[in-house]
Write a structure and sequence with these properties.
165 residues, alpha+beta, Aminopeptidase, seven-stranded mixed β-sheet, 3 helices, 7 strands, 25% strand
């Protein structure tokens, strides 16, 4: 977990927004999307996860933890150059673990049909389609997953890859 204002986090967010702008039919303007400001990505309101590979930031995910509601996954991105290494799945699992530790019973997210790799990942991880729960102008897919109790086991480490604490 890092502060979302940290340089590596900001790099990942810029790359995430640039990729959305390239991939969405209408482009992407973060100013018109539903907000997820830095305070919502800091404890106790949330967390920001950063993945570094050989010391370079290559992925991120934010987890919003609103009071009295399910956790919400936001801003999940993995650099195209390292996709296929399981980094996205590890980010997703870490976000789920942190949501469960925060006593959330569900985690939800919104997505866009053009993000086919992400949607495939979410479905394979047990996320199911649900009715829209927000009015984000870029979202056209909504998913949720029920969470069990927080696991006690720690995750295994991989050579040269880390989720920055």
């Amino acid at each position: 977990m890092v502060d979302p204002a940290q340089a590596g986090a900001q790099y990942c967010l810029r790359e995430y927004f640039a990729e959305l702008d390239r991939r969405f039919d209408t482009g992407y303007d973060p100013a018109t999307a539903l907000p997820c400001d830095t305070d919502e990505m800091r404890p106790p309101a949330g967390v920001f996860l950063l993945v570094a590979l050989n010391g370079e930031p290559v992925g991120c995910a934010a987890l919003k933890l609103p009071t009295g509601g399910p956790a919400e996954l936001k801003r999940m991105w993995v650099s195209p150059g390292v996709r296929g290494l399981g980094i996205g799945r590890r980010l997703l699992e870490e976000a789920e673990r942190r949501a469960a530790e925060s006593r959330r019973t569900a985690i939800r997210l919104d997505s866009n049909h053009s993000l086919t790799e992400a949607i495939t990942l979410y479905r394979s991880a047990g996320y199911i389609p649900v009715a829209p729960f927000n009015d984000d102008p870029y979202a056209d897919r909504w998913f949720e997953k029920q969470l069990g109790p927080a696991p006690n086991a720690t995750r295994g480490a991989r050579d040269q890859e880390e989720i920055v604490p």
